[in-house]
Amino acid sequence: MPFIDEVHLEGKTVLLRLDLNVPLQDGVIQDDSRIRAAVPTLEYAIQRADKLVLCSHMGKPKGKRVPELSLQPVAKRIAELLEREVQLAPDCIGDEVRAMIQDLTPGGVLLLENLRFHPGETDNDPEFSRELASLADVYVNDAFGVVHRAHASVTGVVDHMDTACAGFLIQKEWRYLSKALSNPDRPFVLISGGAKVSSKLGLLQNFMDRADRILIGGAMACTFRKAEGYPVGKSLVEEDLIPQAKEILNKAWDKEVSLYLPVDYLMGPNAEQEKTYGVFPFQDIRSDAMILDTGPATHTLFSETLKDAGTIVWNGPMGAFENPTYSQGSVGLIQTVCNVDALTIAGGGDTDSLIHRCGMQNQIDFLSTGGGSFLELLEGKELPGLKALGIRME
Ligand code: ADP
Ligand code: MG
């Protein structure tokens, strides 16, 4: 497998693609988890490479220079974490950048400016890819968050390098996720939640052939209940997905996958307010109310289905957890998941913030750093950034 620990970095200039797209507010980093996640690969590369050239995107500048999306605060934070000097180049390609790399002393680290200031990055422009590749001898990708994107710094650049490999973060993601997909300890349980069935169709379909049990929560469960003919009041429902929801329910029956939907809900006027209408069984939903979280009976049911699990994969919260009033279903389920003697894997943008918010990130076996890439991988899609490096999900 083409991973960094099998590649010779000594004496080389290494181009390291990271996902340093941290949340910024007025130039201040709000959460540096993504930078810290890159540290093992950074330290490994620094100890071996002659010169280290880092690159990343930040936000969506759409091919133009947007000063607010400069990687300057990131350069500073990396320097603090590594306790060494990290310079920021004014651009990511061009003569000035080349000269700065030339001038780096052995062991030096240079961070290139936001890749997406150039339209060639997201367009996967071959000329831009070639320019990037010409800066270094070896390419290392450790940006798991963007491996589902066929962008120049993720795929195009590989065509122009003699040596290309993945870093430790991608290696870890690959180990956990391919274990779950190819050889899970059973029973294998998928927990799927969140707002929309439409964004989880691929996941549900792929897991029909893999999982033993599927637990569905969040607003997406309302579309399933509606498909079965139950009332859902004013809850979020995707009317146009009712046929697909029915199909999934039938498929689960055919394939003998046990599919569980919530049996009670915490209801309220809307997701913003503190005042609730209380807990109701799923058969008795008021027409003027919204389903905003799963209730205690659902918690008991879901916990029962998890207690003998061998592997649990979780994506999507059980309710509108951003409001603490409607977070209990999700928080309770995290506690259950973390106490089960199973391999536990979670991921997704909101699932990640939910787990961080409860401070349970170290209790789960593996919390993916990917949002879209995590989901697409679990959908069974071939991810361009992994394919470019010859990494397959067994
Ligand atoms: P992830 O980013 O982890 O893949 P999603 O984006 O699919 O998760 O879903 C998260 C969103 O779903 C959250 O913003 C949450 O508020 C919303 N949500 C979940 N359940 C409900 C509900 N019953 N009513 C309204 N919103 C909900
Ligand atoms: Mg989300």
Essential attributes:
single chain; 394 residues; alpha/beta; Rossmann fold; 2 domains; 6-stranded parallel β-sheet; 17 strands; elongated; binds adenosine-5'-diphosphate; binds magnesium ion
Description:
By secondary structure, the protein is an alpha/beta fold. The chain folds into 2 domains: about 5-170, Phosphoglycerate kinase, N-terminal domain (Rossmann fold); about 185-380, Phosphoglycerate kinase, N-terminal domain (Rossmann fold). It contains 15 helices and 17 strands. The strands form 4 sheets. It has a 6-stranded parallel sheet. Helix 11 (about 295-305) runs parallel beside helix 12. The longest helix is centred in the middle third of the chain and has 15 residues, at about 170-180. The radius of gyration is 23 Å and the shape is elongated. It starts with 12 loop residues before the first strand and ends in a 6-residue tail after the last helix. The relative contact order is 0.13. The structure holds adenosine-5'-diphosphate (ADP) and magnesium ion.
